[in-house]
Amino acid sequence: MILRVFQRIGAAVISYFREIGILAILLYRIIASTGYVFRRPRLLLDQMIRIGVNSLPLISVVSIFTGAVTAWQAAYQFQIVIAGALSLDFLGAASSAAILIELSPVLAGIVVAGRVGASIAAELGTMKVTEQIDALESLAIDPVQYLAAPRFTAGYIMLPVLVIYSYLIAHFGAYVVASIMLGISTNTFFGSVQRYFLVYNVYSGMLKALVFGGGTALIGCSIGFQASGGAEGVGRATIRAFVFSSAFILIADYVLAVILF
Amino acid sequence: MIEINKVKKSFDGKSVLKDITLTIPDGQTIVIVGCSGCGKSVLLKCIMGLLTVDQGEIIVDDENVCAMKHKDIYRIRQKFGMLFQSAALFDSMTVEENIGLPLREHSDLDEDEIEARIRHILKLVQLPDVEKKYPAELSGGMKKRVGLARALIINPRYVLFDEPTTGLDPVMADNINELIIETHRKLNITSIVVTHDMESAFKIGDRIAMISRGRIVFHGSPGEFESSKNKVVHMFMKGRAKT
């Protein structure tokens, strides 16, 4: 019984380090393929459109409601929780800081993890189980160069762009709630945002977006390349990609928060 | 020439290839037969370096594929073309993009030359006017022809066929056999065909090798195969489970 417990723990630890090793090797090979990606701009552009442009509608919906709920919850805390200790004049600054540092990078990251990370795993997983990856290899084309590197680079480039877009939409959502629901004037709201605006908050959000974008694509590619067992295996790979990408984003977010602030 | 010397390969402790030794001379078509799961396709993938062998060596034109570095394997693969059992066409690409991919990746040809080569190869596999179609719009036989066109487009020295007639009706299977013979004759390639279709094996093979229980149990001409007294060969040829 005890032996079995230790065996399970041992197997889990070995499996964990194996996964880390596979990710590290894949990352190394992707970085070594950077030149290849930029010599084939069409491959990169296709992925930038799929990862970036096609995520815009979802990012828009998520961001506008994120901004709106942030302003509403902040107002509740100002008025009820800390009852009058802070004036609603500071609502813009409080909402903006939360959006810039935390909400837009993390929520855009999780949206991309769900939409893009999982779809990369499903696409590459299907290619793996239908021998299309073997076919690429047989044509002397490296699947890491041809498939993984453009997806990783596109994720790395496009998530910061999506986060900047999310910043704008989320601020608009917060402003609409502040203005219509709470009666705060435009000048007061944006004056507060401007007065307490720190460029460092934007830099930290961009750094998070870079890490989340690259990490999500890397995890999707790695899990897709390892898929096996037909349609069921592809389904498992898709779920694994979403779960691991989301967990990675939350863990990396904490680590970066401790380092940056 | 391809020389396979004492190759062993196992998966999760289960031995699939136990001791394979086989020489494939230039310009010949060798057919490898055997029951399902005996390791025929595994052997093909080992020859191309898609799978690494546990022991033994595979020499292609005096170079040992098993001892090669990553980038050298990609160089040697340019000597090969492979037709997969399922054709393995890239389903996000049109027929034209599928066939042109190796040229666009490995050659300096301009687009006009690439398109001319694609038209020529599609004519060779008797499949004109499908350039703009996607694999999902093609029948099984058409997919195999496109797969063959893709395998042949870079003028390979060796072409590997993994179950080329499996899943096709008898007429289409015979068409594919004729196509293999014709491309072999026109392009003077060395072909390795994996199949368990004996009609196909007799029709296209200069030599036949049979794998059973991870070993080569027969290697000879189609005539020798037909008259073999080997019990395993006889049972396989007659399609019998018992003697």
Globular, elongated, flat, extended or rod-shaped: what is the shape of chain A? elongated
Structural class of chain B: alpha/beta
Major beta sheet of chain A, specifics?
none
How would you name the oligomeric state of the polypeptide chains in this document?
heterodimer
What features would you describe in this structure?
The complex is a heterodimer of chains A (261) and B (243). In chain A, 87% of the residues lie in helices and 0% in strands. Chain A has helices spanning 2-32, 34-39, 41-51, 56-81, 91-129, 132-138, 143-181, 186-195, 199-225, 230-260. The model of chain A has no long low-confidence stretch (mean pLDDT 91). Chain B is α/β, with parallel strands linked by helices. Chain B has helices spanning 40-47, 70-77, 95-106, 111-124, 140-152, 170-187, 198-204, 222-226, 231-238, and strands at residues 2-11, 14-24, 29-33, 55-60, 63-64, 80-83, 158-162, 190-195, 207-212, 215-220. In chain B, strand 7 (158-162), helix 6 and strand 8 (190-195) form a beta-alpha-beta unit. Chain B is globular, with a radius of gyration of 18 Å. The model of chain B has no long low-confidence stretch (mean pLDDT 89). Chain A binds chain B through residues 127, 130-132, 134-142, 146, and chain B through 45, 48, 50, 74-75, 77-78, 80-82, 84-86, 88-91, 101-102, 105-106, 150-151, 154.
